Amino acid sequence: MNKNNTSTKNKKYTVAIFVFNNFIYDSRVLREAISLKNGGYDVKVIAFHEANLPEFEYKEGVPVYRIKLKSRSWSKSYFVQVIKWLELFYRIIKNHRKADFYHICDVLPLPVGMLIKKYFNKNAKVVYDAHELEFDKNVSRKFYGKLISFLEARYIKKVDAMMTVSQPIAEVYSEHYNIAPPKVVMNCANLQEVIPNQVFRKKFNLKQEQKIILYQGNLKPHRGVEQLIEAFKTFPDKYVLVLLGMPFTSGYLDYIKAEIAQVNNIFFHPAVPPNELLAYTSSADIGTYLIQKTNRSHDMSLGNKIFEYIHAGLPIITSDLIVTREVIGQKLGYVIKEDTTAEIKKAIDTILENGIDSYKKELQLATQIYNWENQEKIMLQIYEDLKT
Q: CA 298, 252, 265, 226 torsion: positive or negative?
C-alpha cells in the first residue's frame, strides 16, 4: 500500500487540453495550462491549425500542437463537414491518445475525449470545462444548438469532473442534467502590478482631456458593439471609443471600418496577445461590457474582460445581467438598464462626475477576490481529487 502511494505521489501526470480554436487569444486556456504546468503536470494544448500559424510552438513554456486538416479547404456541405470531423478525430486519436487527463474546453471536443477514454485509454480522466451555458447559447442556430445539446447530454454524466465559469451556470447545469454542481473556476486575471500608460493616446493621437471608453474582446453581434458605435456617433469628441479585439468575420470588420470612417472619436485596434493585454486595457479610462441577454448563457457568464478591467483599475459600464449585477453593482462602475444611447451617456457622465479615482479603492479590493491565483487552487484541487 505504501509503495503504491509513493508511486502515485511521484508520478508525472500528463494533461492534454483540447480547444477547438487556433489558441492565439484564448487567455483562460493559457492560464489553465500554465497553472497545471506549474503544478507539476506535463501539459500540452491541442488546437486548430490556420494559415500562417505554426503547427507546433511553445506558448509561455506550454507546447501547442495545431491539427492541420487536409480536408480544410473542401466545401462546407454537411457531408464534407462530417469528413472533416472524422479526419480531425483521427489525427487527434492517432497522435494524442496517451495522457492521464483530458481537459476538454467547451462541448465540441467532448466526443473525441470520451472516445479516447472508452476505446484507447481506459484509465484516462476527462475534465469537462464548460466556458458558457453550452446547451442554451446557440438557440438562434437550431441545428447547431440541437447538436450541442445532444452531445452534451450524451456525455456529461460520463465525465470524471466538470467545471464552469460562474455560480449561476453551475446551478443551471446541475438542475438541467441532474448532476452534482460543477466546480466554479472564474475567468479572472492574474495578480500583477499594472501601471497606467498612454498606449491608446499615443497610437491615436488623443488629448489628455479626452476620456477613453474601451470595448475589449471578440467583436461580434449581441456584444453591444453596434450600440456603442451608434451612441458615440452622437457624442462630442471628448468621449472616445476604442474597439480592441478580433472581428468574428471579415464582413463585420468591414462594417466597423465603414462606421468609424464617419467620425473622429471611434477607433479600432486589433486583438493583442494575452500577455500584453493589460498594458492596453490600463491605457483606457472606462471599460464596457454590454452583453445582450439573447440567451441565458449571456445572462450568467462572466467574461475575461470584466476581470481584466478590474485589474487594470477601470470602472465598468455593464449590462444588467445576473452576474454583473452582483460583481459590479455601483461600487465598481455602473449597471445600465437598457443599452440605449441615452443610458450609455448617462453611465459615462455618472462615472466621470463621481471621479474615476473614486472607484480605485473598490477596484483594488476586488482584485484580491477576483484573481486567477484564487481560481487556480480550485482547478488544481479538481485534478488532485482525480489522481489514483
A: negative
Q: Are residues 296 and 379 in the same domain?
A: no
Q: Are residues 169 and 253 in the same domain?
A: no
Please report, as a single letter, which amino acid is at residue 294.
Answer: T
Q: The domain spanning residue 94 has which CATH number?
A: 3.40.50.2000
> pLDDT tens digits, the chain, 388 residues: what are they?
444 555 556 788 999 999 999 999 899 999 999 999 999 999 999 999 988 899 999 999 999 999 999 888 787 777 777 888 889 999 999 999 999 999 999 998 999 999 999 999 999 999 999 999 988 876 555 676 788 889 999 999 999 999 999 999 999 999 999 999 999 999 999 998 888 889 999 999 999 999 999 999 989 888 899 999 999 999 999 999 999 998 878 899 999 999 999 999 999 999 998 889 999 999 999 999 998 888 888 888 888 999 999 999 999 999 999 888 888 877 999 999 888 999 999 999 999 999 999 999 999 999 999 999 999 999 999 999 999 6
244: helix, strand or coil: strand
Question: Do both 21 and 169 map to the same domain?
Answer: yes
The strand pairing partners of 219, in sequence order, are: 247
Tell me the three cell numbers of residue 366. 476586488
Residue whose C-alpha cell reads 489628455 in the numeric block: 208
Total domains in the fold of the chain: 2
> Quick one: CA dihedral 233, 239, 240, 244, positive or negative?
negative
Task: State the residue range of the domain holding 357.
Answer: 199-367
